[in-house]
């Protein structure tokens, strides 16, 4: 027995317009069609373009779903390809710049041996690091001598307090 057969209106509460559209599409697929007069008041005159042909509505819904699916696939592909394309173009341009400009500049310098020499700043940093290493080695040796040459005395034996326990009884 269909309890809702005589009801003319169906009220739905949804959180978003997407849910409303999803419910409308589901109801259309199930064969529940909106009343022409209620849709005119509800959509403020936008119902003039509404077709009452259920087969046409299903076809439109199918095409809409296919287009949405296709557009989501295209959107995902574009989002994946854009960074890859940008990186490809940047890397190729940098590679061409290195081959054309930098190598030519390096080979045109008079003395290529000076290019591989250590700078004064790097030599100073290396010397400071070596001095720090030597100081740390000496500190570790001193700490090692202290811990091995330190004499410790054993702890005294425990105090016999059995006489106290007997006096309490």
TrEMBL record:
One of its GO terms (cellular component) is plasma membrane. Gene3D superfamilies: Dynamin, middle domain (1.20.120.1240), Pleckstrin-homology domain (PH domain)/Phosphotyrosine-binding domain (PTB) (2.30.29.30). Coiled coil: none annotated. PROSITE patterns: GED (PS51388). One of its GO terms (molecular function) is GTPase activity. It comes from the Eukaryota. This is DYN3 protein. Pfam families: GED. Residues 60-151 form the GED domain. One of its GO terms (biological process) is synaptic vesicle budding from presynaptic endocytic zone membrane. Residues 35-54, 149-169 are annotated as: Disordered.
């Amino acid at each position: 027995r269909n309890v809702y057969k005589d009801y003319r209106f169906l009220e739905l509460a949804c959180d978003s317009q997407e849910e409303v559209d999803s419910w409308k599409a589901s109801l259309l697929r199930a064969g529940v069609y909106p009343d022409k007069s209620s849709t005119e008041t509800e959509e403020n005159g936008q119902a003039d373009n509404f077709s009452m042909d259920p087969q046409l509505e299903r076809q439109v819904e199918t095409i809409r779903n296919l287009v949405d699916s296709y557009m989501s696939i295209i959107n995902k592909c574009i989002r994946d390809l854009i960074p890859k394309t940008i990186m490809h173009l940047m890397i190729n341009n940098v590679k061409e710049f290195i081959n054309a400009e930098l190598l030519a500049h390096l080979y045109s310098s008079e003395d290529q041996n000076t290019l591989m020499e250590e700078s004064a700043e790097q030599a100073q940093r290396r010397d400071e690091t070596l001095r720090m290493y030597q100081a740390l080695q000496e500190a570790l040796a001193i700490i090692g001598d202290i811990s091995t040459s330190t004499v410790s005395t054993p702890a005294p034996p425990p105090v016999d307090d059995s006489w106290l326990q007997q006096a309490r009884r």
